[in-house]
Design brief:
The protein has helices at about 15-20, 40-45, 60-75, 85-95, 125-140, 170-190; strands at about 25, 30-35, 100-105, 110-115, 145-150, 155-160. By secondary structure, the chain is of the alpha+beta class. Helix 2 crosses helix 3 (about 60-75). The two termini are about 25 Å apart.
C-alpha cells in the first residue's frame, strides 16, 4: 500500500463513518494512524469538515475516544468480526452526550430559524457527527454496499454507490490503476 500518501487522511469512501475507519491504513510497518493523539484527531475532524479550522479547544481524551469509536465501528460494520457487547454502548454514549443544542433564533432578516451548535468542546460533542454517521450506516441498509478495496495490500473501505454496484478499488487512480497494470504485465509475461 506504499502508493497511498501517508501525509494526509483518505476521504474516498462516500461515507463519513467509513472515512473514519480509513483513518488507519496500511499494514505492518507502513501503517498510518490519523487518530494517534488528541491533536491528530482534531486535525482529522478538521480535514473531514466536521470541525472548523480555527478550533482551539482542548479536546482532552479525543484521540483515545476516537480510536475506541473507530474500533467499535469496525467490529459492527465488518461482517467477519466478532462484535463486543459494549460496541453499541460506545456509539450510544457519544450520541447521547454529544447531542447538539438546537435553539430558535431570529436571523438578520427577522425570520425565525433553527440553529444548531455543539454542546461544548468535549470529545463527545466533537465525535457526535461521526457516531451519527455510524448509526446511519448500521440502520439504513447501506452495509451491503460497504466494500473493501480489492488491491491485495490496501486496507481501505468504501461505500459502493455506483449504479452497477461493482466498484472494486478505493481509488481507480491509485489502486485500480496499479492492479490493472500488474494484471496486464502478468498476462504479457511468458509462461
Amino acid at each position: 500500500m506504499s502508493l497511498h500518501p501517508s501525509s494526509s487522511p483518505h476521504f474516498i469512501s462516500n461515507n463519513l463513518a467509513l472515512d473514519f475507519l480509513n483513518s488507519t491504513c496500511g499494514s505492518g510497518e507502513s501503517t498510518c494512524d490519523f487518530l494517534s493523539d488528541d491533536a491528530s484527531a482534531v486535525a482529522w475532524l478538521q480535514a473531514a469538515g466536521q470541525l472548523e479550522s480555527g478550533f482551539h479547544g482542548l479536546a482532552t481524551g479525543l484521540g483515545e475516544a476516537a480510536r475506541l469509536l473507530r474500533e467499535a465501528g469496525a467490529r459492527l460494520i465488518d461482517p467477519g468480526k466478532h462484535t463486543q457487547g459494549g460496541d453499541l454502548d460506545v456509539i450510544n454514549r457519544i450520541l447521547e452526550a454529544g447531542t447538539p443544542i438546537r435553539t430558535l433564533e431570529r436571523n438578520a432578516d427577522g425570520q425565525i430559524v433553527l440553529t444548531e451548535r455543539r454542546r461544548d468542546e468535549s470529545w463527545t460533542s466533537l465525535l457526535e457527527t461521526t457516531a451519527a454517521a455510524f448509526s446511519h450506516l448500521l440502520v439504513h441498509g447501506e452495509l451491503a454496499q460497504v466494500r473493501q478495496c480489492e488491491a491485495h495490500d490496501c486496507t481501505l473501505r468504501f461505500l459502493d454507490v455506483t449504479k452497477s454496484k461493482r466498484r472494486r478499488w478505493c481509488s481507480m487512480a491509485v489502486c485500480g490503476n496499479r492492479m490493472k497494470v500488474a494484471a496486464f504485465r502478468a498476462r504479457k509475461e511468458p509462461s
